[in-house]
């Protein structure tokens, strides 16, 4: 993949170039347009990631997915992105609530199966998070799914990449603690 770069083309316009397209960011506006003047968010992309998950019974407050890399979330190297919608699928068919935390660097959020233990310094890497509540779980028979839309979560990728790190913390459980399989959670993001 070719390196992307930002270059000032006038006092209020920046151009982001890639081999497949050019994108113009207007400083006075809060959206990106391509070289034809069409909004980038008209090209929201769906990206799905299978998360590596803790495989023993988890309790409220436990990290269920230790820090892990999501490859290729942004449109290009060092290009900020926005999450517009998200979905979490549990193939293990359990009800719970959780928080998906986005990180701009590879820092330890906590050990899987334990409470978060991120340091103050490493906490500076935390960007935004998405909360999926127990009440919002939809039962599809063989799996549970959570969906949220109407988001506007601007983030930046890991420096020099188009990637981002995430960790997941359990926030709610019913009467029994959930037990996950190693690849039972699938996080899907709609980004531009």
In short:
The chain has one helix spanning 120-123, and strands at 5-8, 13-17, 22-26, 32-34, 45-51, 63-70, 81-90, 97-103, 126-132, 138-139, 144-148, 153-155, 164-172, 185-191. The protein is mainly β.
Gyration radius over CA: 18 Å
Which residues sit in consecutive blocks of at least 5 with pLDDT less than 50?
1-30
Classification by helices and strands:
mainly beta
Q: Beta fraction of the residues?
A: 35-45%
Give the topology string: H per helix, E per strand.
EEEEEEEEHEEEEEE
Describe the protein:
This protein is mostly beta strands and 192 residues long. It folds into two domains: 41 residues, no CATH class; 148 residues. The protein is 2% helix and 43% strand. It contains one helix and 14 strands, in the order E-E-E-E-E-E-E-E-H-E-E-E-E-E-E. Strands 5, 7, 10, 11, 12 and 14 form a six-stranded antiparallel β-sheet that branches.
Characteristics:
four-stranded antiparallel beta sheet; six-stranded antiparallel beta sheet; mainly beta; 192 residues; 2 domains; 2% helix; 14 strands
């Amino acid at each position: 993949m070719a390196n992307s770069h930002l270059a000032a083309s006038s006092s209020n316009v920046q151009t982001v170039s890639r081999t497949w397209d050019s994108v113009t960011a207007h400083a006075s506006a809060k959206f990106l347009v391509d070289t034809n003047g069409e909004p980038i968010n008209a090209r929201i992309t769906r990206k799905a990631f299978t998360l590596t998950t803790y495989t023993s019974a988890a309790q409220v407050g436990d990290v269920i997915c230790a820090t892990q890399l999501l490859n290729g979330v942004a449109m290009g190297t060092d290009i900020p992105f926005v999450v517009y919608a998200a979905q979490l699928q549990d193939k293990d068919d359990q009800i719970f609530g959780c928080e998906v935390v986005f990180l701009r660097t590879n820092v330890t959020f906590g050990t899987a199966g334990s409470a978060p233990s991120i340091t103050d310094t490493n906490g500076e890497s935390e960007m935004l998070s998405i909360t999926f509540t127990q009440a919002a779980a939809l039962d599809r028979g063989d799996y549970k799914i959570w969906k949220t839309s109407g988001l506007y979560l601007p983030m930046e990728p890991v420096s020099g990449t188009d990637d981002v790190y995430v960790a997941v913390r359990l926030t709610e459980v019913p009467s029994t603690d959930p037990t996950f399989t190693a690849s039972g959670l699938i996080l899907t993001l709609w980004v531009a």
